[in-house]
Write a sequence for this structure.
């Protein structure tokens, strides 16, 4: 439970920070500077909602890794799009839809590769400990 909690909290922090930085950069390029505190709070709630969806999807058994990722990506994408539309954080236009899609895709891929590398390093560490134990017991 402790490990799962740590992974979810770190994922929420990474997603929030990375996507917020990307949005800030894009807003700066468009000379849009003002961001309200309400937006930041609701945006964080949207990230927590996305992480909750991810937690629910991980409980489903998929036949392939590709279908798992496509289901996760599309589910979170659509729910977050709906969330941002309902709370009027984005207005529907081709430009806003493109920017949202770009930020979401970059964030999703970045988090995926970060977590993949993190889990690989943890597995390598555990394997090295097992190898040391096996070498020592012989």
């Amino acid at each position: 439970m402790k490990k799962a909690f740590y992974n979810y909290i770190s994922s929420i922090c990474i997603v929030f920070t990375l996507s917020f930085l990307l949005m800030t950069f894009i807003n700066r390029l468009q000379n849009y500077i003002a961001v309200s505190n309400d937006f930041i709070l609701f945006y964080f709630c949207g990230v927590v909602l996305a992480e909750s969806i991810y937690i629910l999807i991980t409980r489903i058994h998929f036949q392939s890794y590709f279908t798992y990722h496509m289901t996760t990506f599309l589910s979170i994408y659509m729910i977050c799009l709906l969330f941002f539309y309902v709370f009027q954080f984005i207005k529907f236009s081709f430009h806003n839809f493109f920017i949202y899609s770009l930020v979401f895709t970059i964030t999703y891929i970045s988090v995926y590769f970060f977590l993949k590398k993190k889990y690989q390093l943890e597995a390598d560490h555990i394997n090295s400990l097992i190898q040391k134990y096996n070498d020592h017991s012989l």
Notes: Residues 47 and 131 are 39 Å apart (CA to CA). The radius of gyration is 19 Å.
